[in-house]
Design a protein that fits this description.
- The chain is of the alpha+beta class.
- The protein folds into two domains: 2-91, Winged helix-like DNA-binding domain superfamily/Winged helix DNA-binding domain (Arc Repressor Mutant, subunit A), CATH 1.10.10.10; 100-270, 2-Layer Sandwich (Beta-Lactamase), CATH 3.30.450.
- The chain has helices spanning 25-34, 46-53, 57-69, 85-91, 100-115, 157-163, 168-177, 191-204, 246-270, and strands at 73-75, 81-83, 119-125, 128-135, 150-152, 207-210, 217-225, 231-240.
- It has a six-stranded antiparallel beta sheet. A two-stranded antiparallel sheet has the order 1-2.
- Helix 1 (25-34) packs across helix 3 (57-69).
- The chain is elongated and about 75 Å long.
- InterPro entries: GAF-like_dom_sf (IPR029016), HTH_MetabolicPath_Reg (IPR050707), Tscrpt_reg_IclR_C (IPR014757), Tscrpt_reg_IclR_N (IPR005471), WH-like_DNA-bd_sf (IPR036388), WH_DNA-bd_sf (IPR036390).
- Residues 24-85 form the HTH iclR-type domain.
- It holds the Pfam family IclR_C.
Length: 276
């Protein structure tokens, strides 16, 4: 990510005696750690921070935990720290922001590693759900879609999320205009039933496509929202129906999906321009 390319001072001395009376060593250490997210490094451990800026590991850990408490970095289960959306937002005043999808890729990679299944971001275009970012997995569970690939809105989890925010009549019109082909025996094509499923998305905050796109594949999606609360994209995870039941998806995947969708909503909002 290019958001963190800044000039890093090479003086690793944090001795207050060598500084002015107003010198705050703790602040200097915290800023030195932030500067380590330099566009090449995106994750960081306390040991790496300590080694790079010449402080003890315990001090580096306290700095990172303080930054995490303030919301400037996030920590995962493996004790890796990474920039938060809040830090990205601050960096925009200094550097030109990268695209949303570029900034989101590391979040998708992390979610893919957690769930061990491919995850994607899609957007609505010409009444289709278009893949704009994706984190693949070595496990073969999907239809082979890639960035730029498209899915119909009526039977895909992402499509149902993307139109769930529309007024009922507009959503109904989009579904009516779709060529609602029964892709599998489980594909829902009837307009009243589809409207019920979209209403459930509005209520539950998630959509599930259970072997409606392809037999053997399940997908779950959640909305990514802008500052006004409008749905601008959908975050999804797909998996094998033989490996993961719908109940297991709700129990294990849904909390992760919703949490990451909220973070991606925050990230999206950092890229919005005033007046848009």
């Amino acid at each position: 990510m290019g958001d963190f390319i800044v000039s890093t001072p090479r003086d690793k001395t944090f001795d207050a005696k060598a500084r002015p009376a107003e010198w705050m060593a703790g602040l200097a250490k915290g800023l030195a750690i932030i500067e380590m997210f330099d566009g090449v490094r995106y994750t960081l451990t306390s040991a790496e921070a300590a080694r790079h800026i010449g402080i003890s590991r315990a001090t580096a850990r306290r700095c990172l935990l303080t930054l995490a408490e303030l919301g400037y970095v996030e920590r995962d289960a493996d004790q890796y720290f990474k920039p938060s959306a809040r830090l990205i937002r601050l960096s925009r005043g200094y550097t030109k922001p990268t695209s949303f999808t570029e900034a989101a890729q590391s979040m998708l990679d992390s979610m893919r590693d957690t769930l061990e299944d491919p995850v994607s971001i899609t957007m609505l275009e010409n009444d289709e759900s278009v893949f704009v970012a994706r984190a693949e997995t070595s496990r073969v569970v999907t239809t082979g879609v890639k960035v730029g690939g498209r899915l119909p809105i009526y039977c895909s989890a992402t499509g149902r999320v993307l139109i769930s925010d529309l007024p009922i009549e507009r959503a109904k019109a989009k579904l009516a205009d779709n060529d609602r082909v029964r892709r599998t025996p489980k594909t829902c094509t009837e307009l009243p039933a589809l409207l019920e499923r979209i209403d459930a998305v509005r209520h539950d905050g998630i959509a599930i496509s259970d072997e409606e796109i392809e037999l053997g594949m399940r997908a779950m999606a959640a909305p990514i929202r802008d500052t006004a609360g409008a749905v601008v994209a959908a975050l999804s995870v797909s998996t094998s129906s033989a490996r993961v039941s719908v109940e297991a998806m709700r129990a294990r995947y849904q909390p992760v999906l919703l949490a990451q969708a909220m973070k991606l909503s925050d990230l999206w909002q950092t890229f919005e321009r005033p007046g848009k």
